[in-house]
Amino acid sequence: MQATRIRIGTRGSPLALAQAHEVKDRIIAAHGLADEAVTIQVIKTTGDRVLDRPLSEIGGKGLFTKEIEEALLTDEIDVAVHSMKDMQTVLPDGLVIGAVLPREDPRDAFISLRHESFSKLPQNAVVGTSSLRRKAQVLHARPDLRVVDFRGNVQTRLRKLEDGVAEATFLAVAGLKRLGMTERITSPVSMEHMLPAVAQGVIGLEIRDGDELVTPIVAALNDETTAWAVAAERAFLARLEGSCRTPIAGHGIVAGDEVRFRGQLLSPDGEKCYDVSRIGNVKDAHDLGLSAADEILNQADAALLVRPNV
């Protein structure tokens, strides 16, 4: 194993780098490699370059993964490290998910310098977020609030809050934990009130299909419990053809051989919200997600989503 060389590709944000270093440390620990045997390569993505427009205006899923996947396909890197919530449900030909790490706290964090919780926001307060899902959920719960776009990495968004661009914002608890910034969390938001994005809190490792060297190295890091939950969530998202243009949320919890899944589809203005739940065996996790999506497709306003052909 000492002759092994593994090249990790990642975005360059502080959070992405923290995730890449976690993967590096886990690979080294699992296989007894020297530190220099695993390197990290920063790759700038479309989502990192275009910061003057909302994500929904410049494309859907793939904004933070496309260039990293291209580097994987051209053998410039061996492992792509992604926040799973940023990944497309259909991967490019020749690429597969080799492993997912144990899930961090999947909840959203309410962050404000003036108010102690989401419910304490005053009438007509300004809330900042770059997520269509969070925007729709905020407006569904509080149609009186005004939502403004809030792009940038975690540090940039916190700085905008300090500058008074908005009175509050939301960030993933998982990201703040990985950055050692839990003190910035004003209060976590219950999943009863804000269901997270599909695969939120999960780090995914993408590799070349059939790579005989990398596949077993990465597979040793896989967390089966997280993988079952994510299978239900991503099947749900795939069936609904979700993207950054569609407010969709979903979360699975695995206990023993059972998976409990809850999913949502919302209208962008938050006026409509379709909520569905399922319970089943972990071996049926993928089909469970599909079934939950089909229930929503049978109920939802046709203008919100085009029914897929498969």
- Care to count the β-strands? 13
Largest sheet: 5 strands, mixed
Enumerate the spans where pLDDT stays under 50 for 5 or more consecutive residues: none
Strand content: 15-25%
Provide the structure class.
alpha/beta
- The DSSP helix count reads 10
Shape: globular
Distance between the termini: 43 Å
Named CATH topology of the largest domain: D-Maltodextrin-Binding Protein, domain 2
CATH 2nd-level architecture of the largest domain: 3-Layer(aba) Sandwich
- Radius of gyration of CA atoms, rounded to a whole number: 19 Å
Helix content: 25-40%
- How many separate domains make up the residues? 3
Write out the strand line-up for the largest beta sheet, numbering strands in chain order. Answer: 2-1-3-10-4
Mean pLDDT: 91
Assign the CATH class of the largest domain.
Alpha Beta
Order of helices and strands: EHEHHHEEEEHEHEHEEHHEEEH
Please identify which CATH superfamily of the largest domain we are dealing with.
Periplasmic binding protein-like II
Write the layout of secondary structure elements.
Elements (H helix, E strand, L loop, with lengths): L5 E5 L3 H18 L6 E5 L3 H4 L5 H4 L7 H8 L5 E5 L11 E6 L7 E4 L14 E3 L3 H10 L4 E3 L5 H9 L5 E5 H6 L8 E3 L13 E6 L5 H6 L4 H16 L8 E8 L2 E9 L6 E9 L3 H15 L11
Parallel strand pairs: 1-2, 1-3, 6-7, 6-8
Antiparallel strand pairs: 3-10, 4-10, 5-8, 5-9, 11-12, 12-13
Helix pairs in contact: 9-10
What report would you give on this structure?
The chain folds into 3 domains: 1-101 and 202-222, Periplasmic binding protein-like II (D-Maltodextrin-Binding Protein, domain 2), CATH 3.40.190.10; 108-189, 3-Layer(aba) Sandwich (D-Maltodextrin-Binding Protein, domain 2); 223-303, Porphobilinogen deaminase, C-terminal domain (Double Stranded RNA Binding Domain, 2-Layer Sandwich). It contains 10 helices and 13 strands. It has helices at 14-31, 46-49, 55-58, 66-73, 132-141, 154-162, 173-178, 214-219, 224-239, 285-299, and strands at residues 6-10, 38-42, 79-83, 95-100, 108-111, 126-128, 146-148, 168-172, 187-189, 203-208, 248-255, 258-266, 273-281. The strands form 3 sheets. The chain has a 5-stranded mixed sheet with strand order 2-1-3-10-4, sandwiched between helices. Strands 7-6-8-5-9 form a 5-stranded mixed sheet, sandwiched between helices. The mean pLDDT is 91.
